[in-house]
Structure formats: C-alpha cells, structure tokens
Amino acid sequence: MSHVRHVLILTVLLAAPASAQNLDSLLSRMTLEEKLGQLNLLSAGGRASPEQMQLVRAGKLGGLFNVMGAENTTPVQRIAVTESRLKIPLLFGLDVIHGYRAIFPIPLGEASSFDPEAAEATARAAGQEAAAFGINWTYAPMVDIARDPRWGRIAEGSGEDPYLGSLMAAARVRGFQQNIFATAKHFAGYGAAEAGREYNETEISERTMREVYLPPFKAAVDAGVTSLMSAFNDVAGVPASGNAWLTDTVLRREWRFPGFVVSDWTSVAELINHGIAGSQAEAGRRALTAGVDMDMQSSIYVDSLAALVQSNRIPLAVVDSAVMRILRAKQRLGLFRDPYRARTAPPATELRALARRVAGESIVLLKNERSLLPLAKAGTIAVIGPLADNKEEPLGPWHTQGRAEDVVSVLQGIKTKVQTVLYAQGSGIDDTSKAGFAAAVAAARQAKVAVLVLGERGDMSGEAASRSSLGLPGVQEQLLEAVAATGTPVVLVLMNGRPLILEWASDHVPAIVETWFLGIEAGNATADVLFGDVNPSARLPVTFPRVLGQVPLYYNHRNTGRPPDANNKYTSKYIDVPVTPRYPFGYGLSYTTFGYSNLKLSAARARVSDTITATVTVTNSGGREGTEVVQLYVRDEVASVSRPVRELKAFRRVTLKPGESRAVDLRVAVRDLWFIGLDMKPVVEPGTFRVYVGPNSAEGLEATFECIP
Ligand code: NOJ
Q: How many angstroms separate the CA atoms of 364 and 537, rounded?
C-alpha cells in the first residue's frame, strides 16, 4: 500500500516539475517582480521579439499572444521552462474566433443554426487545429449580447437573445476547452455601446445587466471557462476593466468563478482616458484591485505596480491571488507537465466537411415567393455581384490564419451544380461606379434566373467597424434594381456580418437568402441551399429592422404603458414607419412548410421547483423533408417589475418527412422564469405565465399556466 503511494507521489513529482508539488510553495519562492511578471501579457508580431524573449528569461511575462506556429511558440516556451529562474511555462493566446486556418461561419451566422452542438463541434475543431500550431488559449467565445446592428462586433457573438446566447456560449466553451483554454468576453456590457458606436459608453441598469448581458457569461462560467476578458467600455461611468462590482462582487463572490480575468488590449492603461486614473500606476491599481488579474498589452502591472505593493497601497494578497489564479490555470492546462503540448490538427477533409455542414445549417431563407428556390440544376444562370467571385470576404472578420485560397466562392459553388453560368461582377462592394451594370444586365437578360451576391466586406463588421447606415454599401442596391428591372427572376444572396436594411429587396425581390460570412465552404454551402441539396433550417438570432431609425429594435422588449395600437395615435410607435421589424428574431423559412397544432401544457399550475412540459404537434405540410426550429417563449403577465413581452426559454430542431406529424416536447423549469425583483434579487413570482410555441418570436400558439407559491 505504502509502496503504491510512494510510486504515485514520485510519478506526480517527476511528471510535474513545478505543479502539484504545490503552487503555494512556488508562489512563496517568487519575487514581487516575478509575481507581477506572471500578470503581464504581450502581443508578438508573429514571433517573440528579442526584448520579449529577454522578459521571459527574466520571469517578467506570463504569456504571449499572436505568436504564430509551433516553430515560434516552442523556442520561447523553451526559454521559459529552461532559462527563467522558476521555469514557469507561458500561455500562448490568439483570437481563434471562428476557426484557425479552416474558417467556419462567423459566430452570428452559426448562432442562426440554433444548434449548440454545431457550435461545439466547430469550436472543438478550431481549438484542436490551433493547438497543433502551438496555441493553448483563445480569446473566444465572444458572448456579448448585441441589440444594435450598427455595432460591428455583433458579427462575433450570438445576437440579441440571452437564452440562445447562453447555450451557444456554453457550447463553445466546451468545444474549445477540449484542446485549449477559452475566454468569455467582453465582461461586460460592451454590446450596449451607445448609438452602436464602437468603444462607446454604456448605460445599463443593474437589472438589465443581470437579466440580459450577464447570463451568457454565467453560462460560460458554469461550463468551466478558464478566463474572462474585461471589456473596454464603461458601465454608467465605471469602466469594466476597473469595475469591482463586475469582476469581484458578481464574478468571484456570487458566481464563485475560479479562473482568471485578462484585460482587453491596453484597457488597463485606458482607465486614464476614461478619467478614473491620473497615472499609469493608479490605472494599474484600479484594475488589479477590481479583479483584473492579467494586463494585456499595457505593461503597467509589471512596470508600475511594485512600488504600490511595497508601500501597501496594493495589498500583497491581491497580487498573490491573481498570480495563483494564473498558475492554477497553467497547471490545469497541464503546462507544467507538458509545456510544448505537441498536438495534431484534424485532417483537412474533416475540417472541410464540418465547415460545409455547419455553413449549410447557418443559412437563413428570408423570402421565397412562388417557390423560386430551390433552383433546378439546368438552364442558364446569371451570377452577379461583387461577392460572387470573391474568396476573401467569406472569411469574415477575425479570420486568424484563414486564407482566401482555401475559400470556395459562391460562383465556384454554383458551377459545381449547373453547367451554364454567366458571370458579371456588376460593381465593387463599396465603390460608386456603375460601369459594370450593363454587363450584369446583359447576363441577366440571357438567363432564366439571376443570383445576385451582395453585401459587406468582411472588415465592415468586427472590431472598430461600426456603421451609421445599414444598407447595402456602394451602388449595390442600384445594381440589384437594374438587374431586377430586366424581369428575370432574382435571387438575392446576402453576405454580411450584421442585420441589414433590406426594404427595397424585401418588397421587390422574390427570393432572399442570408448567408452571413460562412468561411471556407461558403460557396458549396450556399449552392447546396440554392439548389435544394440542403433544405435551409436556420433562424435569425437577431432582429432585422425596417429602417435605421427603429434601432435598437429587439423582440424581448417591455410592453410600455401604451403598447402600439394602430387606431390610437397616442401609443408607442412612429408616425412614418411601422413599429414591427422587417424580419423578427427567430424567423426563417424552409423549402417545406410546417403547421402547429394542439399545444398542451403538462400542468395548469406549477410550483417554482416544477418543470412544465409544453407539447405541440408539428406537421410538415409541404413536399420535402425539412427541419423546423420549434421555439417556446414565455411572458410573465403580471409581476412587480414590467417583464418582456416574450422571452425565449426553449427550442428544438425537429426534422420531419413530408406529411409527417410529431408531438414535440419542450421543457421549461419554472425556476428559469426568474427576473430581478424590486429588491434587486432574482425572483419567480406567483401568477400567470403565457407560453407561446411557434416558428418565431412573432407567431405561435398560446397557452397559460399559473405559478403557485
Ligand atoms: C481587442 C479585442 O477587443 C479583443 O476581442 C481581442 O481579443 C483583443 N484585442 C486581442 O486581440
């Protein structure tokens, strides 16, 4: 017995030179400089610079990011684990957002699949591929709720809904963390940037923060995420990177988050611009004492905090806790045991197959008059538009190591399905010249159908890409009108990173397909849908407004005291546009149709500890097999605080053969119907709850149940 124990202890010691042999003892051997060094994170331009290598040697760096390739991570890790005094391994971070080299759909697109398993699968694959290139830590998932499509980073998240956003957040964390560490970002409220202007201030009540913006972070924490990134924005005057309420009270005390918080890029130094610190040292003190453990790119912790610790203005215990969180993370990742983590990437064929499948699941069919789609694989097709023969833009924002040469363009995808294709670019994405219109119109005239591939450049969304107008850039809308005027039926294929304003197209174009930025298999997946090899099943994770003046427009709004009434002027609406969106949250069509009937709830009365099951019969009433996303929304009719008119609480993807009916169950735990009460505590209040089950946030059958004390 004792022999076995000895062997075990020995194995642990041999395998882990600095690990379970007690991080406390490691901490006790660290100088203050070495401690602050662990809290320091710097970006490398592809490989570590000589100065950065020197910092590693001196124990003044806890991690590096943007080191590309194992041939570049390995030598610097070797310096850390052989030449630095305490031999503490480095973290290697990177923004692996929707793929490493194999690029998958942007997160907003993938959220349209309403398929968390798909998100988990792409995150797992991206993490494995990144790990093979020396990366052990990604700055994803981005879980910011976004209600304003002007904000370009809406592309990087899961849209406007906390429930869908939470499921996607947890799925991506699980997926990434099979191979590398994940980071839920940006904590918190970044998506509420006023006027959709990047990095702008936010004004979020504690209630809305807790009900809307925080749940996806909580889901990431519950899924075991290792790190959170503190955001750039302030929340009602308190910057998120120096906000003890967020990073200490909520995150550490309430949620018991055991991992570490990394700042966003120089967001510690930016506390000076925010006007809450007058010096670098003060900015560092505010951030570190608020609970931001690792300083990305400001170098303030390592350069300016030692004196404050020595003079007790920052308690040493604060530094020690931050260091321990980072050391524990390194230990959990196995870095002390295996600092180089040699990994193999998934086979390229596997990555492509996954990219094509998930891209197909991410395409939303917005309109399909007289069943123009799917197209027959015969006859002449005109393929027009600046994004048709384009291999760069489908990579979207944040495409890491993605390469245009890996992308199948929409034109290429269509050519694999049909023989006679006439191509004309028509115009650039945002230029003003109509010189190419004539050739586009001529191509359309000769074709039985014109497919127009229009939208945004990849870099028109993502970071620092707010737009003040949401139309098609440049002369694309005029190109669309010119081609439509030929009388040849038009299919509009959209490529974009945010909801667009599509009024003219929605009124005049018979078929509209939203493809977002789909990644390397964009062309094949789009063609699969256009020609019916894949029946579209995605649903909008975000509302599409009619006009910019409606923004912010989201489905889970409160009712107001004067809900819109067409017959009463003095109700909440506009005098010049309808109050409704163009396409509501949860909306999307299929090549078949689905009917809903017979909604039943498992009980008329339920306690908070109960679960209600809603059963509805869904029938495929069309002529093809198809997948419906059955959605369940709840409204708390009377509460001490005004509650949203609807909130998504459950959904299921259900595949039905033509004519097939199925009783579909959706379960809701009554305790999940909480809101933040008058005392700012979560509560489920007794009373009537209305349940809606249907195809999107604006339709559905209704039933009610009573929550009893
Ligand atoms: C700034 C971005 O806001 C953040 O999302 C990203 O992870 C960092 N830069 C690092 O690249």
A: 7
* Ligand 1 atom at shortest distance from the alpha carbon of 156: 5
pLDDT score for 28: 97
**Is 95 close to ligand 1, i.e. is its CB under 6 Å away?**
yes
Ligand 1 geometric centre to CA of 555 (Å):
29
Average pLDDT over all residues of the chain: 96
Catalytically active residues are: 264
Helix (H, G, I), strand (E, B) or coil at 524: helix
Q: What domains, with CATH codes, occur in the chain?
A: 3-333 (3.20.20.300), 361-550 (3.40.50.1700), 594-707 (2.60.40.10)
Task: Note the pLDDT tens digit of each residue in 545-595.
Answer: 999 999 999 999 999 999 999 999 999 999 999 999 999 999 999 999 999
Q: Which amino acid is it at 238?
A: V
pLDDT of residue 21: 54
CB neighbour list of residue 622: distance below 8 Å, 6 or more residues apart: 590, 591, 592, 593, 594, 658
Phi-psi group of 687: left, alpha or beta (phi > 0 → left; psi -120 to 50 → alpha; rest → beta): left
Residue 394 pLDDT > 80: yes
β-pairing, 687-694 with 701-707?
antiparallel
**First-to-last C-alpha distance (Å) of the chain:** 55
Burial 218-241 (b: 16+ CB within 10 A, else e): bbbbebebbbbbbbbbbbeebbbb
User: How many whole angstroms from 264 Cα to the centroid of ligand 1?
Assistant: 6
Residue 307 has pLDDT above 70, yes or no: yes
Distance CA(570)–CA(572), nearest Å, equals 7
Is the pLDDT score of 309 beyond 70? yes
264 Cβ closer than 6 Å to some ligand 1 atom: yes
DSSP 560: -
* Ligand 1 centroid to residue 47 C-alpha, Å: 18
41, 35, 77, 27: which is closest to 59 by C-alpha? 35
∠ CA 361-178-335, nearest 5°, is 150
Q: What is the pLDDT of residue 9?
A: 38
Residue range 18-43, pLDDT digits in tens: 444 589 999 999 999 999 999 999 99
Measured in angstroms, how far is the CA atom of residue 465 from the centroid of ligand 1?
A: 13
> 511: burial class by Cβ within 10 Å (0-12, 13-18, 19+)?
buried
Q: Which residues contact 182 (CB under 8 A, 6 or more apart)?
A: 123, 127, 138, 140, 141, 172, 173, 176, 220, 225, 226, 227
Nearest atom (ligand 1) to Cα of 232: 3
Ligand 1 within 6 A of CB of 156:
no
Q: What does the pLDDT look like over 107-150, one tens digit per residue?
A: 999 999 999 999 999 999 999 999 999 999 999 999 999 999 99
Report whether pLDDT(6) > 70. no
Reported as half-sphere exposure (CB side, CA atoms, 13 A), residue 438 has a value of: 1
Q: What is the predicted pLDDT for the residue at 407?
A: 98
Q: Which residues pair with 494 in a beta bridge?
A: 454, 514
* Biggest alpha carbon–alpha carbon distance for the chain: 87
Predicted confidence (pLDDT) at residue 14 exceeds the cutoff of 70: no
Asked whether 619 and 597 are in contact (CB, 8 A), the reply is yes
Q: At what angle do helices 162-176 and 116-132 cross, to 10 degrees?
A: 30
Verify whether ligand 1 is closer than 6 Å to residue 265 (CB atom).
Answer: yes
Q: Is 139 in the pocket of ligand 1 (CB under 6 A)?
A: yes
Task: Classify 696 as helix, strand or coil.
Answer: coil
